[in-house]
Amino acid sequence: MQLPPVKGGLPFEAVTWREAKQRIGSIASLRLWELFEYDELTINMRQNGDDRFAKLLSSVRIGTITDENHSLLSQRKIRSDGRASIPDIVHKYNELVDQELQPIVLMPRTNQCDEVNGALLSQLSSEVVSFEAVDTRDTIVMDKSILCKVERALVSVERDVTRTAGLDKCLQVAVGAKVMLKRNISVEAGLVNGAVGTVVGFTNKGSSVVSINVQFAGSDKPVRIERQTCTFEVLKGIFYTRKQFPLMLAFAITIHKSKGLSLRTAIVDTGTACFGTGMIYVALSRLTSLEGLYLIDFNRQKLCANKACICEYN
Asked: What is this structure's pTM?
């Protein structure tokens, strides 16, 4: 009943003949779901201190809310007369920080996050530092006539982080910036993909920055985050290696990226930009209470659940 897989089908759907053949060499479709036993967890741990909010979310989960619940959510909007602007979001974010809260902004789309992150980064008093990824071609191209084609292909994919294991082409940070780790560094220490911290400084070697020092919640001292590598394909058989710091700005993150988080305070966009089933439910249900929720916008028509999931659940 939450967000469906970004790439892939729902778990209870039969694996198609084509998928089965490609993945496990089967010559027929499979119904793997029927091989599992189902247990339902019935205790709401995240919102167990706010029954009113928990009941509201139970309705949102199946794609319906009452007029009373709609009115309740509308009261959480930053602006009662419409959608909050970027300056409105920045002002509310700073207001919450001044109250010693730790807000995060949840947006439906990456470009919206980039806009908010840029606005909040630019207001920091410290200098913004840019780090370009180092991309090196691993494959020797014997036919020099296709080099131009390879270079064009590189340009078309180099900013697509889904192709580069999450490593950005250009990372901009500053001391005081909120960032999220995009790689598992030390699972035992909690330094995993999705961990959020604050940049507190840089370690230099000569004129080059060799690490970004980040203070993560729960860590006694700052952690030195160094560049990581990944290999990605730009054309069939043509590979590049990227070296970049595995971090991203995290004043604002996508709702997809927020899955699994529990938040006391968040500024959330549940307006017209929301898409797909379960998105508004996931966004709202990250909060532990209604009191910590601040809405950029709310569109009741975008509230929907996956009908196939409801049928399977029943």
From this structure: 0.89
